[in-house]
Amino acid sequence: MNQTPNRYYYSIAIIGILFFIFGFVTWLNGTLIPFLKLACDLHSDAQALLVTFAFYMAYFFLAIPSSFILNKTGFKKGMSLGLVIMAAGALLFIPAAYSRNFSLFLTGLFVQGMGLALLQTASNPYISVIGPIESAAQRISIMGICNKVAGALSPLILSAIVLAGASEIEAEIVNATDPSVREQLLQALAQRVIMPYIIMAVVLVLLAVMIWFSSLPEIDTDVEETSGGGSDRLKTSVLQFPHLLLGVLSIFVYVGAEVMAGDVIGPYGKAFGISLDETKNFTSYTLWSMVVGYIIGVITIPKYIKQQDALKYSAITGIVFITIAYFTTGYISILFIALTGLANSLMWPSIFPLAIDGLGKFTKIGSALLIMGIAGGAIIPQVYGLLVQSMNFQTAFYICVLPCYLFLLFYAIKGHRFGRA
Question: Which of 8, 168, 200, 299 is 20 to 30 A distant from 139 in Cα terms?
Fold first, then answer.
C-alpha cells in the first residue's frame, strides 16, 4: 500500500492505540479469575476459568460475521463499531456486580470478546498489508509492544483496586460465621469492579468517536498485492489455501499456550501454596517478558531473521522453558512459566502474515478464520481445568502446553509452505 511517510506513521500510531486497548482489556482476565472466584463464591478453578472460556469463545462465533460486517462498513467504521460493542460489555459489569451474578459477568466478557473479534479482524490484516509483507512481523511486533505493555499494566491497576488486601479479605470471608456478614463482605468486594469498568466504557466510546472521524486511510485487500504472485485468482474458496488452514490451527494452539502462561499462571502459583497477594501479579511478569520478545522482533525482523525462522526459534524456546518449568518447583517453575512469554511474543507476528500471504481477495475471510483460532484461549485452559482435577497440576500444565509448541515448530518448518507455489 503506497502512502506518504507521514500518513504511514499516522496509521501505525492509530492502530497502535487499538492494540493498546486490546491488551488492556484482554489481560484483565488474569485478575478477574481470582477476583470472581472470591466475589462470586465459586468452588473450583475450573469454574473460575470460565472467564477465559466466555471471553475467547466470542472470537470463534463472531470472527466470520465480523468479516461480513467489515465488507459493509470498511475497516475504519468497523473498528469504531467494535469499540462501542466493547463498551457495552464493560457496562454489563455494573448489574453483574450489584447482583454478584457470575453468569452476567461472563455475558459481559462475551460481549467484550465480540467487540474485540471485530477489532482484531480489522486491525491485524490492516497492519499486515499497510506496508511490505516481508516486514509485516516487524510492524505486528510494534503493535505487540503496545498490546503487552498495556497487558502488563492492566492486571496491576485492576488488582490494586479490586484485590487490595486480598489475603485478609479471603480470610475474613472464610472465617465469617454470620451469613449476613459474609454476604456483606462479598457484596462490598464485588462492587469494587464497578468504577473501573464505567471508566473503561467511557474511554472506549471516546476512542470509537475518534477513530470514526479520523483520517485513517481505507485499504482494499481485494486488490492488494502479495508475494503469492496473484495465485488467489485461480482459487474459488478460502479453504483451498492449506497454509492458511494450518495457520488457523497454529493461532489456536499459540493463543492457548499464551493464555496458559498469562492467565493460568496465577492458579498455578497458588497450587504451590503462594498467597493471592503475590499470585495476582504473576500475569504481569509473563507480559513483561513478552514485551522484551517484541522489542527483539522489532530489531531483528526482517533484517536479521525471517518471519518463519522467528517462529521456529520461538517454538524451540517454548519447548525448553516449559520443560524446565515441569521439572522444577516453586518460584523457579513459575519463573520459567513467565519466561514462556518471551517465546510466545513473536508467534502471532510471525503466524499471521505467513498465513494471509497470497490470499488476495480472500484476505478478509482468511483473517476472520485466523481470528476464530483465538478460541484456543477458551478451550486449552478448560482442558487444563478438567485434567487438574485428576492429576498433578504441573503434569496437567505440561500436557496442555507442550503439544502446542511442537505443532508451532512444525508450522514454522513446513506447514507455512503447504499449498504454496
Answer: 200
